[in-house]
Give the backbone structure.
Amino acid sequence: MTKQEQRLLAVDAVRGVAALAVVLYHAPRELRSAVGIHPWLDAIFANGYLGVDSFFVLSGFVITMSVASSSWTFSYLLRFIARRSVRLDPSYWAAIGLELLLGYVGFHILQDEYPFPSTAGVVSHLVYLQGVLGYPQISDVFWTLCFEIQFYLILVGLLVVSNLHLVKTRLSQRVVLGTALTIIAVTSVAVRNGAIQNPHEGIGLIRAYQFAVGVVTFLAAKGKTPVSMAAFFCGAILMARLLDGAVAEVCVTALTVGVCFGSIVSVRINALADVSPLQFLGRISYSLYLYHASIVGRASTLSLLLAKKAGLAFLPILGLVGSVFGSIAFAYLMFRLIERPTMRLSKRIRME
């Protein structure tokens, strides 16, 4: 294992935990109530949405790591878009197809109500524009992917602009990037706190501060910006959210920042994260996140329906456990069939 791969063990572990948390969150409350799980365990399920907060920080951190040592030109931006498209789109498109297929089957066999999207809605999903164009999300988790694509393009776009000759003759790249990130993060927190109105629900401004925090964390960990300055930036942003009462969100965001920073500067934290189940979940986290909502939702509905008709008390338990482990198994299958091959293919696109 290379030094770089070892440094990312902690990040992979957090990614896996975040994905599993979101899976648990999408187990319907009706199913959890039917099972009768303990209140503290039910609280873990109910707060699984916090995994999304962790994902946005991780995205900022990881994407900055992938582009930090590159030559930022317009040509690079095009190659970046091509590589990310090859890496992300096939799995995402498969998840769209799965949801539509299961919705069709459920509608015609189980008589479930299913809001079939329009052709324009499906096409907008294929290019991550459904939120911007105002179409309903086909799956509950797709909105985060749209935000992340926006963040990627903004970050690399800023790097390209900061690398222009005219800009570099007047300002340093650090000033350009630092000023832009500060403006974005402050505006994002103001929108998140309700101090200013969100200009558009389909634009990821409401979550951009977490992505910015991830970017700054990587720059500080690699010595590209002073740790004290990064700590002040992240601390001020999180304190502003804390003043709005977002205690759980701030705690998860801060914990993710700490793990990301430690993944580069500490050998011990990576050693602690070298746990096979966590690393497994981390590897398949993208597929798990994409497909789980379709699996969990249908398995839960089916188990409750059968329990009501057949009067079998164990079916909700089977549905709850089966939906979680079934999601993991299906995610692993799709990882092997689609995600891993596209990861390899994307690396063939030269970035220099």
In short: The CA atoms of residues 155 and 296 lie 34 Å apart.
